Amino acid sequence: MEDAYTLVINNGTKTFSYTADGNSPINNMWPDRSMAPTNLTFTVYDNLGRPINKDALAKCPIK
Fold it and tell me: What is the residue-averaged pLDDT of the chain?
């Protein structure tokens, strides 16, 4: 399909929970700071599997 695109969420395989005290992994009170989450990013691929440049994506209208 000519207009088919694929959106892949990078670093999206980790899940985090809160402690019983309501602390999240980005809170300084979190027991194990090595578990701090990384930023979620995404990559869009065209129908041929090539990544689309982020500058080009910034100029595309969102539908």
Answer: 76
Nearest-angstrom CA–CA distance, 3 and 46: 8
SS3 40: coil
Pairing label, strands 41-45, 6-10: antiparallel
Give residue-wise pLDDT tens across range 15-51: 666 777 776 666 666 566 566 666 778 899 999 999 9
Coil, strand or helix at 55: helix
The sign of the CA dihedral 20, 26, 30, 36 is positive
22 HSE (CA, 13 A, CB side): 0
